[in-house]
Amino acid sequence: MNILFVGDVVGSGGCTFVEKNLRAVKQHYAIDFTVINAENSAVGNGVTPASADWLLDAGADVLTLGNHGLRRREIYPYLDNENNPVLRPFNLHRDAPGRGMLVVCKGAVKIGVLNLIGLHGMESVDNPFNTVDAALEAFAAQNCRTVLVDFHAEATGEKKAMGFYLDTKVTAVLGTHTHVPTADEQILPGGTAYITDVGMTGPIDSCLGIKKELAIEKMRTLLPVRFENPDNPCAMQAVVLHVDEQSGKAAGIERIEVR
Question: Catalytic residue at 177?
C-alpha cells in the first residue's frame, strides 16, 4: 500500500496547486490513501469550510491541522460534523471542537490517522507524550495496524523524541509546522517511518508561504504585521510511504517535491 502525506498547504495558491497536481501525483506513485495538512489553507492562515472542501474535493482522504487550525471560528461546526474527515490536534483542551483521530477503511485495510501538537513554542496543550497512548489504545481496540501520526511541532528534538517513542507502535511519525522539508527521512529500527518535517505546499518565492518583505519587516521591527501570501509559482512538498498491509510497518519513505 502506498500512502501520500502532503506538507502544510498555504493559502489559495497552495490549494490551487493541489487541485491541479494531486491526481497526477497519486496516479504516478500509485497512491492508495492521501493525508494533507491544511492548517494554513485559508487566506491569511487557519482553515475554513471552503478551503477544507477544496482540498477534499481535490483528492485528500483526511486533513490534519495544527496551531492555527482553530483560528477561524467558522470551522468549528464543520469540525464537529463527523462526516468531515478533518482532524485537529488530539491533545488540545477537551472543550475544543472536533476530534483528533479517526479510522478510515480502505477496502479490507483500516488506516488510523492521529494529529498531535507539540509543547515547545506552541499554545498550552496537554503533553503529547502523556496523551498519545490513549489514542493508540483506541486504534488497537479497532484492530487498526496502520497508523499515521502528524506531529505538528516547532522543536526538532521534540519531534525526534516522539519518533523514537512511537517506533514499533505506529506506521509513521511525520513532522509538520516549520514549512521547511528536512533531509532525515528514514525507517526507524522498529519499522516506523519518520521525517522531522515534510515541508509545505505553497509559494516558492516566500518566507514560509508569507510575502518575504512582510516577514522581514516583522522580524526587524517586532511590530504587528498583517501577513499576506504572495501570488507566485508554488511547489508541493510531500512524502510517499510504502506500507506492509499485514503488519502496518513501513517498508519505505520517499521525500518528493512537485513544481
Answer: no
